[in-house]
Inverse folding.
């Protein structure tokens, strides 16, 4: 059931203060989507904790998560672009909507992540003989970002966004190798087949994908972000940003787990590329210019 329908159906069951929040949202749902919790509380003449309590009554994790669900219950948006953007939106409107919806998605993803699984993934990655990152389409850019991060570490790492190269890499894999597959939907057939092939060759498969998807079922470990973005209809946006942040989380966990000696190696890597950049311009230099 859509969020607005859920609010209308349960209107009589809310407390007096919660009902004020519901009525403020029903009066102008578009405004509520782009409001801060403080502004909505002021409009409804209630406290901020009351707004949070109202959001949790609707089975959301808090105000940002509620705004995400509310946005999805409104208009279908512009097909092949973004669910929250309308055809007649101007620069100010669509800029605000994209930032707001992305921040809401990131918050929902953060709250939905199982940190025990994050810890397990970091364990596997730090003990790997070799790490490979695979992605297709929009997820390929996330795989390349992962390569950029992990390439700085003293461990063999590769990245492929070509299905033939992915299959050959899996065939050449062995026990101790880790293959990270990135797919928002988890329904991309070639990637599911790659996961099967990797496991047949004793590689450990980590999937950044939707829980319960075909890809998840073929993986050893699943990190699910729970970003409700329908990429069958809309351009991948928030899901891709959430995937990038999850790569940063894994990178950070890897670095901390390997300890101080390992961070000294990172310092040497940084020093080796220092000469490839111009020096920063100081305020004094700017004044002289």
């Amino acid at each position: 059931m859509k969020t607005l329908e859920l609010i209308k159906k349960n209107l009589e069951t809310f407390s007096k203060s919660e009902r004020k929040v519901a009525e403020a949202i029903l009066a102008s749902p578009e405004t509520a989507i782009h409001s801060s919790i403080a502004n909505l509380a002021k409009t409804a003449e209630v406290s901020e904790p009351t707004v949070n309590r109202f959001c949790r009554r609707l089975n959301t994790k808090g105000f940002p998560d509620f705004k995400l669900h509310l946005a999805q219950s409104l208009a279908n948006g512009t097909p092949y672009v973004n669910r929250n953007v309308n055809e007649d939106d101007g620069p100010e409107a669509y800029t605000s909507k994209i930032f707001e919806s992305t921040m809401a998605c990131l918050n929902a993803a953060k709250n939905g992540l199982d940190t025990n699984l994050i810890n397990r993934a970091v364990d596997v990655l730090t003990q790997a003989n070799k790490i490979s990152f695979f992605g297709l389409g929009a997820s390929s850019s996330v795989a390349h970002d992962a390569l950029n991060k992990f390439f700085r570490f003293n461990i063999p790492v590769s990245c492929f966004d070509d299905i033939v190269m992915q299959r050959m890499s899996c065939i050449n894999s062995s026990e101790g190798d880790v293959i990270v597959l990135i797919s928002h939907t988890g329904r991309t057939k070639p990637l599911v087949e790659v996961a099967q092939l990797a496991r047949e060759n004793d590689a450990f498969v980590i999937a950044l994908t939707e829980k319960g998807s075909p890809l998840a079922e073929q993986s050893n470990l699943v990190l699910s972000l729970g970003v409700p973005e329908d990429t069958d209809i809309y351009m991948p946006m928030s899901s891709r940003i959430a995937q990038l942040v999850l790569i940063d989380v894994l990178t950070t966990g890897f670095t901390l787990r390997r300890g101080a000696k390992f961070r000294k190696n990172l310092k040497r890597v940084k020093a080796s590329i220092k000469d490839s950049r111009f020096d920063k311009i100081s305020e004094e230099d700017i004044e002289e210019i």
Summary: The mean pLDDT is 87. The beta strands are 130-135, 157-160, 177-182, 204-208, 221-223.
